[in-house]
Amino acid sequence: MRNPRRLLLSCLASLVAGLVTPAALAQAERTTIVAPFPPGGPVDTLARILAEQISRRSGQPAVVENLPGAAGNLGIDKVKKARADGRTLLMIPAGNLTINPTLMTNFPFNIEKDFVAVTMVAKAPNVLVAGPGAKVRDVRELVAAAKARPGGFSYASPGIGSGLHLAGELFKQQTGTDLMHIPYKGTAPALNDVLGGTVPLMFSNLPATLQHIRSGKLVALGVTDSVRDAVVAPEIPTLAELGIPGVVVTSWYGVLAPAGTPPEAVAQVLKDTTDALARPEVREQLRSQGLTPVLMKPVEFAAHIKAETATWAGIIKARNIVAE
Fold first, then answer.
1. Could you report the per-residue pLDDT of 287-319, keeping only the tens digit for each?
2. If you placed Cys at 250, which of 7, 123, 174, 315 could pair as Cys (CB 3.0 to 4.6 Å)?
């Protein structure tokens, strides 16, 4: 007669083995990249590029989970609470990391303590444009006219607290001018009013305005980056080249992991991102959307987030900017 204890253990082992199905194993090995915005935008695109690369390298499934809500905070919260094993990642734009901590009352995260910075992935340059209502042809002329008529010029933005709104506030600070901010609900209506001459100026994403610059409907006064965009519009100088330093505002996107993620897991995600951005078809895909691939080591990316957060905190507090 078989030992009852051994028989019981054997039955339990069989039961456990039956519970660990291939689907369960695949779920355990799956990488999830949370994109806290709807499908179709740059965050979603970059998340899918990285997911594809992880799948190619590991042979295991990698999926993108679009989790919009609460201005991105819903998706951020999921990653914060995820297991820190490198299998749950966050693809996120700059504003959620460097603007919202100051702009939002009771911001629920400490970016530096709750997450590990992995790398920046891509950026899109911004540009100061003048529409037909501005009646200026270069930035020096604009600064002189704005100083002569305090409050006489206004600029449009996609909304209060957006990176493009703060770009205008930074420009005002660096030039000593007084421009009036006109917030809109999105880029499209703001751009339409600038094109129509209702509002004279706008800080905008360069790809969104390039066709209007090339057609002559808008005048590009300078890009808000430390270097010219060598791919999209190398002919447009930076504001620094034109004598206005310190206005460096780009729309960038990066990858974070939950705090406590092992260094070797972080290093693997960085390698996957590097390999993805090295593929010619990926670089071409990004260029078609006006994005430039950018890579940073984790320590560099963490320092970048910290420095930019401090810059925007100073602007937001000095200008008494309050979220809508």
1. 888 899 999 999 999 999 999 999 999 999 998
2. 123
Tell me the whole-structure pTM to 2 decimals: 0.84
Domains with residue ranges and CATH for the chain: 30-124+251-318 (3.40.190.150), 126-223 (3.40.190.10)
| Three-state secondary structure readout of the chain | CCCHHHHHHHHHHHHHHHHCCHHHHHHHHCEEEEECCCCCCHHHHHHHHHHHHHHHHHCCCEEEEECCCHHHHHHHHHHHCCCCCCCEEEEEEHHHHHCHHHHCCCCCCCHHHHEEEEEEEEEECEEEEECCCCCCCCHHHHHHHHHHCCCCEEEEECCCCCHHHHHHHHHHHHHCCCEEEEECCCHHHHHHHHHCCCCCEEEEEHHHHHHHHHHCCCEEEEECCCCCECCCECCCCECCCCCCCCCCCCEEEEEEEECCCCHHHHHHHHHHHHHHHHCHHHHHHHHHCCCEECCCCHHHHHHHHHHHHHHHHHHHHHCCCCCC
